[in-house]
Amino acid sequence: MNLQNAVLPPHAEMVRAMLERDTAYEGVFFTAVKTTGIFCRPGCTARKPKPENVEFFAHADEAMSAGYRACLRCKPLDAAAIAPDWVQRLLKSVDADPDLRWTDAQLLAEGIEPLKLRRWFKQHFGMTFHAWLRSRRLGIALGGIKQGGSIDNAAFDSGYESLSGFRDAFQKSFHITPGRVAHSEPLLFTRLTTPLGPMIAMAEQRGLVLLEFLDRPALTKEIEELQNRYGYAVAPGHNGHLQQIEEELAQYFAGKRTEFNVPLHLPGSAFARQVWAELMKIPYGQTTTYGAIAALLGKSGASRAVGLANGQNRLAIILPCHRVIGADGSLTGYGGGQPRKAFLLRLESAAVQITQQLAF
């Protein structure tokens, strides 16, 4: 599974979309105004700035890290938390008829520009729409084989005319041959939208295995490790754990949830799991240091090792490594980027303050 950086539309097209308030580009880019220090959705109804005073960002957090504030009128952080209507309609159509082979002509008939769709999927899923469809069909085939279905039937149902073509595509996607599926564990993934940009969630039958921001530099390496070291076959799909984390994450960002109940499964070394267990104990709205965690583990001189295990955490927000700061109070590193770390700490601090005010 290869996750690539987002590719923004041409500058002239983004300027046009901004000036015309083209809502079709919701979720594709954000407009930041240099003279006001505010960033907006493409369809914002506020007075439009001069094009020379504007710059564009693929994600809301990128605009925030550049020093821009969210517009109070169009609320771009809320927009970042949902897929645009035209994408949601398409995803519902795919769920209703998973065997349909979508062509560019069919997309255009639905009012969807294929190039725009390609860019949105590359940004939010790390692959094109058609690649996602192929991967989704192969994921359905994987589930069928895992449940005892024949490889021949799986290949035919997936739309492949030759068994060899199916085997090649299957092995390229899952790093195993169809015949070895019985000895592997399917790891289903879905994209989640959040105010800090898109995330990817992965879960198997025992629980949630991964929750990361799609632009995390180490994400590709983490997924390859899950495939090669732990034998997972990664495929798009849904299960109860993915549905639960989507609901709980939305509540967290709304300031209405302080802990997560979704079951977890954490492949890793014994020491890493010890560190992750301590991360789980850090109270909501509070912070600690690498040295303090090392002391709790009886290894006061192991701050560096704790930091390394902290960085190997695959469950952003759930295992709250954003609550670990430097001994001098600095934010230090964070796999999702320091602007996101600062945002999460502000979110939790504000929620705690509101709770305390309501208590008096």
Quick rundown:
This protein is an alpha/beta fold and 360 residues long.
Helical coverage, percent range: 40-55%
Number of separate structural domains: 3
Number of helices: 15
How would a crystallographer describe the biggest sheet?
Answer: 4 strands, mixed
Which secondary-structure class do the elements indicate? alpha/beta
Distance between the termini: 51 Å
Number of strands: 10
Unreliable stretches (pLDDT < 50, length at least 5) are: 1-5
From the alpha carbons, calculate the radius of gyration and give it in angstroms: 22 Å
Architecture (CATH level 2) name of the largest domain: Orthogonal Bundle
Level-1 CATH class name of the largest domain = Mainly Alpha
Strand residue content: 5-15%
EC number: 2.1.1.63
Organism: Pseudomonas lini
Subcellular location: Cytoplasm
Family: Belongs to the MGMT family.
Structural features, described:
- With 360 residues, this protein is an alpha/beta fold.
- The protein folds into three domains: 11-80, DNA Methylphosphotriester Repair Domain; 82-183, Arc Repressor Mutant, subunit A (Orthogonal Bundle), CATH 1.10.10; 253-359, Orthogonal Bundle (Arc Repressor Mutant, subunit A), CATH 1.10.10.
- Helices cover 44% and strands 12% of the residues.
- It has helices spanning 11-19, 60-65, 76-80, 85-96, 104-109, 114-125, 129-146, 151-157, 163-174, 219-228, 240-253, 270-280, 290-296, 303-311, 338-359; strands at residues 30-33, 38-40, 54-57, 69-70, 185-192, 199-204, 207-213, 232-236, 288-289, 324-325.
- It has a four-stranded mixed beta sheet. Strands 7-6-5-8 form a four-stranded mixed beta sheet, sandwiched between helices.
- It is flat.
- The termini are far apart.
- The model is unreliable at 1-5 (pLDDT under 50).
